[in-house]
Specification:
Elements: E1 3-6, H1 21-26, E2 30-33, E3 54-63, E4 71-78, E5 85-87, E6 99-104, E7 110-116, H2 121-128, E8 136-141, E9 147-153
Antiparallel strand pairs: 1-5, 1-9, 2-3, 3-4, 6-7, 6-8, 8-9
């Protein structure tokens, strides 16, 4: 069993960096500067932004399904124009954080979940994908609850 984790498409977020703070506020978004590293996990690069980097904090619908499990929350994105693609490997933002892993079927219904302590994401992903009904997994930071990345069977 193999899996794939990719960053969100930068094309969706790059135009936000050209907006004024007032225009961002109209979209319920805020320009921020990373004040420490780690602490500002970018959902495009799947890495923590270095201190001093500009990011946009915005509301993001991470699970756009017609089920009770539709989900949205705040995420950080950087000005990066690259979205990495990890195969059978956990990206940096998922390595040192406790994660909630939620396994969904093709219809977007929750079929299983795991808590993964730092360093245990790979095992949790493989365990959830042991259930053939689980089509994909959403990883969330356990403490803050924000979406980190989608994990797909590969």
């Amino acid at each position: 069993m193999t899996y794939r984790i990719a960053g969100l498409s930068p094309a969706e977020f790059l135009p936000l960096f050209a907006l004024s703070d007032a225009e961002l506020a109209e979209r319920h978004a805020v320009r921020v500067t990373a004040s420490r590293h780690p602490g500002y996990p970018c959902r495009v690069t799947l890495e923590d932004a270095p201190a001093g980097e500009e990011l946009i904090l915005l509301h993001h619908v991470s699970h756009e399904v017609a089920t009770p499990y539709r989900s949205a929350y705040a995420i950080y994105v950087s000005r990066s124009d690259r979205a990495p693609d990890y195969r059978d490997a956990v990206p940096p933002v998922m390595q040192a954080r406790a994660l909630g892993l939620r396994g969904f079927d093709e219809a977007g219904m929750l079929r299983g979940a795991r808590l993964a302590a730092p360093g245990e994401a790979d095992a949790g992903i493989r365990d959830l994908f042991g259930d053939p009904e689980i089509a994909y997994i959403h990883a969330h930071n356990a403490a803050h609850g924000c979406f980190v990345a989608r994990v797909d069977r590969a």
